[in-house]
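>> received
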Amino acid sequence: MNDQKKFEVLSYALNTSELLRQLPFTAECKHYHTSKDNIIEPAMVVRDLGVHLSCDRSWSPHIDKIVQEARTISSWVLSVFRDRSPLPMLTLYKSMVRSKLEYCCPVWNPSKVSDIQALENIQRNFTKRIAGCGELNYWDRLKKLNLMSLQRRRERYCIIHTWKILNDLAPNDVSLNFNKHNRRGIKITLPPLNHKTQASVRTDYENSFKIRAARLWNLLPQDVNSITTLDAFKAALGRYLKKIPDTPSTPGYTAANRNSLLDWSMNSKMGCSTGGRA
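>> returned
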């Protein structure tokens, strides 16, 4: 199923006889019907391929659900396994907990601070239980355990998926417009947005995969974005990301910014420094 078909399923939800209210022609129709003439009742949230979307185009219901599921699994792991040494703890966390928090994340990658923190708190609380990490703050635990924040990993996934689109390993259903420059390498031209567009639509535009992925990709230097093999690209991307501070938004901490790669790029241009613990 391509992305266009997935969008149709999410929009009309024929597979579950549900309907999103936020359709451009909703006001023109009193009811929608299935092919068998059954009325499709409105729903506040629809689910497709394991991802939930609300009628106001929010991913928060999905994030709330996976956070609760990950919290339950995390509690089970910590109650069943007594060994708190890093290797078994990280193995269990990565395979059983983190995987739950990252399924299909380029689609629902959140922009709301509350959603970002809710996801990050799962990793923050789990790593605190690892031997030798209890007295370290979260940012230092990430360094000691050689972990990225979940926020940074989601942006990494977006960049890798963009590379796959560029190299025909994934369909370009979002119509990313790649252009090659002699000095800057391969960049993406962002589509313009009408300045008269209402605020809610502008927010959806800014947070869509197409726009966020394009902006993240355009941060990459030429020696990274021009690599043509996946393993080599991942290795180069990893080296590039290690140069950028990873200080996720966390209660009790004062950060320099929202920790997105886009924010760090802006900070670098403005000459800002990192924050510290409150």
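>> The chain has three domains: 3-54, 60-147, 154-243.
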